[in-house]
Write a structure and sequence with these properties.
heterotrimer, A: alpha/beta, two-stranded antiparallel sheet, 6 strands, about 20% strand, C: about 400 residues, mainly alpha, two-stranded antiparallel ribbon, 14 helices, 4 strands
Chain lengths: ~150, ~70, ~400
């Protein structure tokens, strides 16, 4: 049974406080989302996001502080620009831009963060649904990854 | 919501015109303190107009933050 | 050795009772942001621009101050009359005087907001002690400039303040009497006193800009000005207040006058209010202790124990010399000007680095361990010692595998 798309989230340790929401590195409410803590949203190399997608993640997002309030002043703006550039670069390789996300949430913005992550996950689910066209002999059933035939 | 903001902008613009006339009146009658207060009120009205325009989305974030 | 970077944070990561109290202040400050961001768009939140607001008020102070300086006469006989002439005789002179007065209050409010926000949100750690120390100097000098401003008017309040200030000076052990004589320019209050007070008003105010230069030194793209809407608001507010509540002088100072009370200004004159109950020596000691505590905050005031900061304390960024190609991307991205480019002493090891002319160097005293340079580098030439690229990759692999 598929849990849904595998999502990795890099969360800046100064931004949204997820401690009550985490259970063993995953979000309790969305168990398919794994959280990795980093010192600043600007710490992430775009190459790591590409790498995460290549290793099997369906989607990957970065969360920083609200724009204007980055503890390190510019980290979230820099990361937003880097993700924009990465999305454009990956579009050439036909990787959908919806697989990458940049979020900005402050210490108390847990609800807004969860809502935005849910939207992100739903968009990913929609990306997975269309299956490649099948030969005529087989029934035209849409399959998602991991479902038993 | 947007209509409320628009109404606010219109109201403030009318007030701004009044304040500008007040500045001229203060200058004409040498009432300097009154004129100064009118300048202040005008600038305040402008700042609120800018806030409402920003909330309506007509003006966007500062260049440094786009 | 990599951190157990993503183990759940230990519950008692704050440093005892002080740490828990400071954490509560941090959370409260950011909760205020949640409320403010409901009303204003985030790029209009005034608390994100407290430094810019202070700078705006300082600019208003300088411009209005130059105007006032042109008309002011620094003598016992002429000071009060010249101030009255500015207020009543010069067109809009009273407005400019009021703007000067209210912008000074605004300056102190903005500086205090800036101080408390940056203190409660941990923005003084590591090499950010420099802006903190220069900021403390700005506060102290700014407060002193405000006090001498009240003296310049030379009304009854100014006379009482001068007497009280001399009392505080004389209360300082050893040097007190000498300082009082230097301040007075003689044995009693004379013309030279006011000349010195004028100097002590204008010179520290100019020195504020030198300290501002120091304040901005370690910071890339400092937010010097607030958003335009806030600039209009602050300017409009000081004009309106100046027009509606004109700044006025009290009765003229007379030698030997016996006034004992004056209208209080809570922004600049609080220490003199304390003199109602405490001896001068104690007030001076209290102010000194406050200043010392303020200066000590970056060194002794951290909210969390270093090991409790985990990923946020992963070590100073290190350049991997062999890989650096001198592309300058880290230099442009570092928010604290902690990376400098130097002529490369030798070619690098990798193919891309072999033809370099520049090499990146991290100035460790300026690094706050944020890791933004690591994110900027396309050539794997920067690492945080306790959170390496291979640690990140390992965490990603584990996350995907599960």
């Amino acid at each position: 049974m598929s849990e849904g798309p595998k999502v990795i989230g890099f969360i800046c340790d100064w931004s949204v406080d997820l401690t009550p929401l985490l259970e063993g590195g995953r979000l309790r409410e969305l168990p398919n989302v794994r959280i990795i803590r980093v010192p600043c949203s600007g710490f992430i190399r775009p190459g790591w996001l590409e790498d995460a997608l290549a290793r099997g993640a369906d989607g990957v997002f970065v969360t920083g502080c609200p724009y204007g309030d980055c503890l390190n002043r510019e980290g979230n703006y820099l990361m937003r620009d880097r993700i924009d550039q990465l999305q454009r670069r990956l579009a050439r390789r036909r990787v959908d831009a919806a697989r990458l996300g940049m979020l900005a949430h402050g210490l108390h913005d847990r609800e807004a963060f969860l809502a935005e992550v849910r939207t992100f996950v739903e968009r990913l689910r929609a990306l997975q649904a269309p299956a490649p066209p099948r030969p005529v002999a087989e029934p035209a059933v849409v399959r998602t990854e991991g479902e038993p035939s | 919501m947007r209509n409320l903001y628009l109404a606010g902008v219109v109201l403030l613009s009318g007030l701004a015109l009044l304040f500008a006339l007040g500045i001229l009146y203060g200058e004409a009658t040498d009432r300097w303190f009154f004129g100064g207060a009118m300048i202040g009120a005008l600038l305040l009205a402008y700042s609120f107009i800018m806030l409402l325009l920003r909330k309506m989305g007509i003006i966007g974030p500062r260049k440094a933050e786009r | 050795m990599s951190l157990a970077a993503n183990a759940p944070r230990p519950a008692r990561s704050a440093r005892g009772r002080y740490g828990r109290f400071m954490t509560a202040l941090l959370r409260g400050t950011l909760r205020l942001d949640v409320l403010i961001n409901k009303v204003y768009p985030a790029d209009y939140n005034p608390l994100y621009y407290t430094g810019g607001l202070a700078n705006l008020f300082l600019f208003i102070l300088v411009l209005s101050g130059i105007f006032l300086f042109f008309y002011y006469e620094a003598s016992l006989g002429g000071a009060f009359a010249s101030v009255r002439y500015i207020t009543e005789g010069v067109p809009y002179g009273g407005i400019v005087r009021g703007i000067h007065r209210y912008a000074a209050d605004g300056f102190i409010v903005a500086v205090l907001l800036h101080l408390f926000r940056n203190w409660f949100t941990d923005r003084y750690l590591f090499s950010r002690d420099n802006p903190w120390i220069s900021g403390m100097f700005l506060l102290v000098f700014g407060g002193f400039v405000g006090f001498t401003g009240y003296q310049l008017v030379w009304d009854e309040r100014a006379e009482v303040l001068t007497g009280l200030f001399l009392g505080m000076l004389r209360g300082i052990p050893l040097v007190g009497a000498g300082l009082a004589r230097v301040f007075l320019g003689g044995e009693g209050i004379g013309d030279s006193t006011l000349v010195r007070v004028l100097y002590l008003h204008v010179a520290p105010a100019s020195a504020l800009y030198v300290m501002l230069w120091w304040h901005y030194l370690r910071v890339r793209h400092p937010k010097i000005w607030p958003p335009a809407a806030w600039a209009l608001f602050c300017l409009g507010l000081v004009f309106l207040l100046a027009g509606m509540i004109p700044a006025t002088s009290g009765p003229a100072a007379t030698p030997g006058a016996d006034a004992t009370s004056f209208p209080m200004d809570v922004f600049f004159l609080l220490p003199f209010w304390l003199l109602n109950w405490l001896p001068a020596v104690l007030v001076v000691a209290l102010l000194t202790i406050l200043a010392v505590v303020g200066f000590a905050i970056p060194y002794a005031g951290s909210r969390e124990r270093p090991e409790a900061m985990e990923v946020r304390h992963a070590g100073v960024a290190q350049v991997i010399d062999g890989n650096c190609t001198g592309c300058e991307l880290c230099y442009y991205d570092c928010p604290y000007n902690a990376i400098v480019m130097v002529p490369s002493p030798a070619p690098g090891l990798s193919r891309a680095a072999a033809n370099r002319t520049l090499l990146a160097i991290v100035l460790e005293s300026r690094c706050v361990e944020c890791g933004i340079c690591i994110g900027a580098c396309p050539f794997e030439a920067l690492e945080l010692p306790r959170f390496l690229e291979r640690d990140v990759k390992q965490l990603v692999t584990e996350a995907v595998r599960a």
